[in-house]
Amino acid sequence: MAKIELNNVVKTFGTQHAVKNLDMTIEDGELLVLLGPSGCGKSTTMNMIAGLTDVTSGHILFDGHDVTTLPPHARNIAMVFQSSLLYPHLSARRNIYMSLKRSGLSRSDIEARIAKAAETVNVAHLLDKMPNQLSGGERQRVATAKAIVREPDCFLLDEPLSALDAALRLTLRAELVNLQKRIETTMVFVTHDQVEAMTMGDRIGVMRDGGLEQIGTPTEIYNRPETLFVAGFVGTPPMNFLKGAVIDEAGKRLFVRGALRLPLTGESAGTPPADQVILAVRPHRMTLTEPGEQALPLKVYAIEHLGNETIVVCDSDDHDRIRIVVGSEFAASVGSTLYAGLDTSHALMFDPATERPIRAGKREVA
Amino acid sequence: MTRSRITIWLVLAIAVALIWTFLPMYWTVKFAFMTKPEISRFPPLLFPPDPNLASFFNIFGSDYTLADGTVVPASGQARQIILGLRNSLIVSVVVTAVTIFVVTPLSYVFARMEFPAKGKLLAAVLLSVSLPPVSTLIPFYVLYVQLDLVGTLFGLIIITLTITIPIVAWVMIGFFRNMPPIEQLGRIDGFSRLYIFTRIMVPMARSGIMVASVIAFLFAWNEYVYAQVLVTGSTAVTLPAAMSGFLFQAPEPGHLAASIFLSVLPPFVIAFFLQKHIAEMNFV
Q1: In CA terms, which of A16, A152, A222, B65 is 20 to 30 Å from B199?
Q2: Nearest to residue A328, comparing CAs of A342, A300, A308, A354?
Q3: pTM for this structure?
Q4: Digit-coded pLDDT (tens) for A21-36
């Protein structure tokens, strides 16, 4: 068990900043997902927590103890690598054993631990197989057994599921979360898949260009994104962005864009008038409606049928891609025009200059 | 093009390649099993009419009595051939062992570690691959005369290493580069760099090392240019150099063919038994 703190951690490779002034606390027993596009610094961050990569400046604390200069094995962590990396020339049992080889435990203790770990992730019957005889899912389970056998303070998982097919990923995702809750060990999970992040994380840290954009529970990240990037990155299909202005007219606050005039309701009604705003709205908060000044004219670009619902992908008048979730019975031809209304009480307003949300009453400064 | 036409072309291409390789080989090797009058017959015979092993006995210094009672005398080159066979084996085995011992850590370091001037050093190692041996022959010869290394196995081994090390390093660096990031796994498990290299990377690289050994062995076994200049006529003569001696004797195509047969045997045997590893190289 460990609480992990990163204090002002910086990593540079030559002149390139891989991680910039990162402050983050991972609570004891928590499953934190680091989410971001490739090259955002999430794997570097994890390697620094593991001790595989040296920190350029800043400190990493485990339960208040500074471990910044300790080598990986002195930190009592376990790591599962991309594609569930195993020693290819050793059997599953030997692979798990390698985790404890330097532990100083007696032979019988090691045997017992291996048996227990194999039992926990259900790989006892695979122990004498070689990695290349195992399926993707089995490899992943053996890699997990190799990690838990050490009974570490913290698990670090670097995109372990990325090489697996979708169905298997779904199964193993649930298995990992279940395991983490059973053994109550701190876990850091790196992924670029926002669905994986949303479904697994107690909290999610969204990273971009070496910095932390936002850290919070999946609900917070989804409902209250703190940057335009987070708003666009999290959620399937992604959020729609509409450029426009906010004005006061006849005592009502309106979002204006071309001929579109939308009265602002709910929280968005507190948005102060501004020449340039970005209105962000989830695709399922938009509806098809009749032409009028409260309707946005769109051209159908593509239609994606998902069975229980359909996503209409459209081009707006200034060529922004807008997605709308509609009923499964929807039909239209590509290129045809339709009109969309939206529920402004569920819309978020962003300042295009700072990419931060504009909250009721005040304009936040980044 | 239809599927069947592609197949026809493929079969043709393979057939041409096989004929290209094996026909000259066969033509030479069949001489080893024929008598001198049979060889000089015109039009040439496609198969040895009455295969015999006379040439093989002759090149090892024994007379051979044919079925009809004719005695074929031993070759005057016999001593050189026997010495050459022995020396070629010694040189090839030693060169292979030293090459692998040097190149395995060298290529691991170049493939998987970062250090200053790495690119330039690597270029220096690999540059010698592109130098034709003849270009370094004269400086080496002058040096060897002064060091008294002409006509010694030791000298020949050193000079052969200058060929094998860069070529094998070239192959092995690529091989190590393609291996998964096992070092990180090893470091998490608490192993030292040395342990990770000797106990994890080297066993994992078994196929690559095997193929590298074959390459080193074949280059050493086939090396002719340096041997011709440095050891011909001495007790350190190697098989290719000894065989070239036939050129200066009364023509004995049977003896020449028999020694060629001996000299191509090891490459064939090796290639046959290591097929699996050679194919595996591509997948690791």
Answers
A1: A152
A2: A308
A3: 0.79
A4: 999 999 999 999 999 9
